């Protein structure tokens, strides 16, 4: 039966700009036949699978382009279907004309993510691996890419599948105990076994969840807001950490007008540094806006670097920023220690005794900030372990949290002495929730929605 899912789809799979080469790709039963209609060169039906074939794309005797066509016959392909890859010259007009031609010859325009969706529907990858494909494309750092590549390789899938298998075995064991009680104390034994298994599953998923925060940071960068009143040296610090003059530095208050965002790598960990405009105290209205802006930067930041001027006494503005950032992950930085000290360090120690004294100007102690970031977020681990399984996808994180909730329900049930079959319901739920990660128990709408977030041609 030919369904909509398995007709022949086509799309431009390379970026729509000028490039040396562009690829127009087709997948489906008629891919080779359609390509043959427009290709002047070898008969593509007769060439060996996984070959690249030179020739021209023609329509009514008119040459559209000189090309190389890749022919990959099912099932050993990206989608498990026949795949044709037309390597054209990389220009929008060329790629577009060839795509239009294929559509006229019987292919259908692919939907975003549809090639990868087919790889999933045809069982070549599971859902978490398909999602990894997209994560690789979106990865901005080496670390983010490493996590996604590991996931594409099935690291998360294996962990989830093994856990689901163990849950099934546990449930089966419960059944056996109930149906064929060998001992008198079968109920007590079953409860004990369930308790132990649940604790083990909880520990495993808990550890996985702990990697999530790191995973997110590695993917998106640690959002680090540099805040402080005007002229304390925020932009100077940003430039120093970047080792590049990205932000304008002057002795004029209010030099930074717009928020500046830059990435920097600290021991393999990407920081997304955000330099904010200094908060002015002169004008009430502006000050209000400034505080509002700081509050926003604060609430969105994973880390706050609050910069104070060591050469001046604390101002009301400093104090309100100290209070405002009290509940954030914060490092208090006293800058300009090359100047005679005026700031009241005892007062600052009340907020946080681990403040750091630096001079950006004299390049003193700035690396202490990097050290402290490492301690706060990476327990000094520095570079991430290579083969650990990382949770980095928001959907996966939410599902692991749900799975943990239902394991807690199992525990609570056992504590309350509920009948074992009721406890089994929650254990089964855990199994189902985990299946949503791999797509084994994911509803169709979810799958449609997930793939629609992919880019066209993927
Ligand atoms: N030209 C081109 N380059 C590309 C892709 C593509 O589709 N086309 N890819 C698209 O993302 C990536 C490569 N991903 C791929 C993943 C699986 C298979 C594949 O054929 N798998 C077969 C095994 C093939 C074999 O062992 O020879 C399979 O799993 O059965 C191909 C490409 C990156 N580079
Ligand atoms: N003495 C001394 N001056 C510094 C130090 N760091 C920065 N400065 C100077 O302080 C002035 C203000 O620096 P900026 O980096 O522009 O300060 P800012 O906090 O970004 O200021 P706004 O963007 O206006 O809020 C400049 O003249 C810098 O050269 C330091 O460690 N010691
Ligand atoms: K300034
Ligand atoms: Mg500035």
TrEMBL record:
<keyword id="KW-0342">GTP-binding</keyword>
<feature type="binding site">
    <location>
        <position position="25"/>
    </location>
    <ligand>
        <name>(6S)-5-formyl-5,6,7,8-tetrahydrofolate</name>
    </ligand>
</feature>
<dbReference type="InterPro" id="IPR006073">
    <property type="entry name" value="GTP-bd"/>
</dbReference>
<keyword id="KW-0378">Hydrolase</keyword>
<dbReference type="InterPro" id="IPR027266">
    <property type="entry name" value="TrmE/GcvT-like"/>
</dbReference>
<dbReference type="GO" id="GO:0030488">
    <property type="term" value="P:tRNA methylation"/>
</dbReference>
<feature type="binding site">
    <location>
        <begin position="231"/>
        <end position="236"/>
    </location>
    <ligand>
        <name>GTP</name>
    </ligand>
</feature>
<keyword id="KW-0963">Cytoplasm</keyword>
<dbReference type="Pfam" id="PF12631">
    <property type="entry name" value="MnmE_helical"/>
</dbReference>
<protein>
    <recommendedName>
        <fullName>tRNA modification GTPase MnmE</fullName>
        <ecNumber>3.6.-.-</ecNumber>
    </recommendedName>
</protein>
<dbReference type="InterPro" id="IPR018948">
    <property type="entry name" value="GTP-bd_TrmE_N"/>
</dbReference>
<feature type="domain" description="TrmE-type G">
    <location>
        <begin position="221"/>
        <end position="378"/>
    </location>
</feature>
<comment type="subunit">
    <text>Homodimer. Heterotetramer of two MnmE and two MnmG subunits.</text>
</comment>
<feature type="binding site">
    <location>
        <position position="235"/>
    </location>
    <ligand>
        <name>Mg(2+)</name>
    </ligand>
</feature>
<dbReference type="InterPro" id="IPR005225">
    <property type="entry name" value="Small_GTP-bd"/>
</dbReference>
<keyword id="KW-0460">Magnesium</keyword>
<dbReference type="GO" id="GO:0005829">
    <property type="term" value="C:cytosol"/>
</dbReference>
<feature type="binding site">
    <location>
        <position position="458"/>
    </location>
    <ligand>
        <name>(6S)-5-formyl-5,6,7,8-tetrahydrofolate</name>
    </ligand>
</feature>
<dbReference type="Pfam" id="PF01926">
    <property type="entry name" value="MMR_HSR1"/>
</dbReference>
<dbReference type="GO" id="GO:0002098">
    <property type="term" value="P:tRNA wobble uridine modification"/>
</dbReference>
<dbReference type="GO" id="GO:0042802">
    <property type="term" value="F:identical protein binding"/>
</dbReference>
<feature type="binding site">
    <location>
        <position position="231"/>
    </location>
    <ligand>
        <name>K(+)</name>
    </ligand>
</feature>
<dbReference type="InterPro" id="IPR027368">
    <property type="entry name" value="MnmE_dom2"/>
</dbReference>
<comment type="function">
    <text>Exhibits a very high intrinsic GTPase hydrolysis rate. Involved in the addition of a carboxymethylaminomethyl (cmnm) group at the wobble position (U34) of certain tRNAs, forming tRNA-cmnm(5)s(2)U34.</text>
</comment>
<dbReference type="GO" id="GO:0046872">
    <property type="term" value="F:metal ion binding"/>
</dbReference>
<feature type="binding site">
    <location>
        <position position="255"/>
    </location>
    <ligand>
        <name>K(+)</name>
    </ligand>
</feature>
<keyword id="KW-0547">Nucleotide-binding</keyword>
<dbReference type="InterPro" id="IPR031168">
    <property type="entry name" value="G_TrmE"/>
</dbReference>
<feature type="binding site">
    <location>
        <begin position="250"/>
        <end position="256"/>
    </location>
    <ligand>
        <name>GTP</name>
    </ligand>
</feature>
<feature type="binding site">
    <location>
        <position position="250"/>
    </location>
    <ligand>
        <name>K(+)</name>
    </ligand>
</feature>
<dbReference type="GO" id="GO:0005525">
    <property type="term" value="F:GTP binding"/>
</dbReference>
<feature type="binding site">
    <location>
        <position position="252"/>
    </location>
    <ligand>
        <name>K(+)</name>
    </ligand>
</feature>
<feature type="binding site">
    <location>
        <position position="256"/>
    </location>
    <ligand>
        <name>Mg(2+)</name>
    </ligand>
</feature>
<dbReference type="InterPro" id="IPR004520">
    <property type="entry name" value="GTPase_MnmE"/>
</dbReference>
<keyword id="KW-0819">tRNA processing</keyword>
<feature type="binding site">
    <location>
        <position position="85"/>
    </location>
    <ligand>
        <name>(6S)-5-formyl-5,6,7,8-tetrahydrofolate</name>
    </ligand>
</feature>
<feature type="binding site">
    <location>
        <begin position="275"/>
        <end position="278"/>
    </location>
    <ligand>
        <name>GTP</name>
    </ligand>
</feature>
<dbReference type="GO" id="GO:0003924">
    <property type="term" value="F:GTPase activity"/>
</dbReference>
<feature type="binding site">
    <location>
        <position position="124"/>
    </location>
    <ligand>
        <name>(6S)-5-formyl-5,6,7,8-tetrahydrofolate</name>
    </ligand>
</feature>
<dbReference type="InterPro" id="IPR027417">
    <property type="entry name" value="P-loop_NTPase"/>
</dbReference>
<dbReference type="Pfam" id="PF10396">
    <property type="entry name" value="TrmE_N"/>
</dbReference>
<keyword id="KW-0630">Potassium</keyword>
């Amino acid at each position: 039966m030919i369904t909509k899912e398995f007709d022949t789809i086509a799309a431009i799979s390379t970026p729509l700009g000028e490039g040396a080469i562009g690829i127009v790709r087709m997948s489906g039963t008629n891919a080779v036949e359609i390509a043959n209609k427009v290709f002047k060169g070898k008969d593509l039906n007769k060439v060996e699978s996984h070959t690249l074939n030179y020739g021209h794309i023609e329509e009514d005797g008119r040459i559209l382009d000189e090309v190389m066509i890749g022919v990959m016959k099912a099932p050993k392909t990206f989608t498990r279907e026949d795949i044709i890859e037309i390597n054209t010259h990389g220009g929008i007009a060329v790629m577009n004309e060839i795509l239009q031609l294929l559509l006229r010859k019987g292919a259908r325009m692919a939907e975003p993510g549809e090639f990868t969706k087919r790889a999933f529907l045809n069982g070549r990858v599971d859902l978490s691996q398909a999602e990894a494909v997209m994560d690789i494309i979106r990865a901005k750092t080496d670390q983010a890419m490493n996590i996604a590549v590991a996931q594409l390789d099935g690291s998360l899938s294996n962990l989830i599948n093994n856990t689901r298998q163990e849950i099934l075995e546990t449930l089966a064991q419960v059944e056996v105990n109930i149906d064929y009680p060998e001992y008198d104390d079968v109920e007590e034994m079953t409860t004990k076994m369930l308790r132990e298994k649940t604790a083990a599953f909880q520990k495993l998923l808990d550890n996985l969840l702990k990697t999530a925060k790191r995973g997110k940071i590695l993917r998106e960068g640690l959002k680090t807001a540099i805040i402080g009143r005007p002229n304390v040296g925020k932009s100077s610090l940003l430039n120093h950490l970047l080792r590049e003059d990205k932000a304008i530095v002057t002795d004029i208050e209010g030099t930074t007008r717009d928020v500046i965002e830059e990435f920097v790598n600290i021991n393999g960990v990407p920081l997304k540094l955000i330099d904010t405009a200094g908060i002015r105290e002169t004008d009430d209205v502006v000050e209000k806006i400034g505080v509002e802006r700081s509050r926003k930067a604060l609430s969105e930041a994973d880390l706050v670097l609050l910069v104070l001027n060591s050469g001046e006494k604390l101002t009301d503005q400093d104090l309100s920023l100290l209070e405002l950032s009290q509940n954030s992950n914060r490092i208090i930085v006293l800058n300009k220690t090359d100047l005679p000290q005026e700031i009241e360090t005892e007062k600052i120690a009340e907020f946080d005794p681990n403040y750091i004294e630096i001079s950006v100007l004299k390049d003193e102690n700035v690396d202490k900030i990097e050290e402290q970031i490492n301690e706060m977020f990476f327990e000094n681990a520095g570079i991430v372990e290579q083969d650990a399984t990382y949770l980095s996808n928001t959907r996966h994180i939410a599902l692991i949290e749900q799975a943990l909730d239902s394991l807690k329900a199992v525990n609570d049930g056992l504590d309350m002495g509920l009948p074992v079959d009721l406890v089994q319901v929650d254990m089964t739920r855990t199994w189902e929730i985990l299946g949503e990660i791999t797509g084994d128990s994911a509803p169709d709408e979810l799958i449609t929605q997930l793939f629609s977030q992919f880019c066209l041609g993927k």
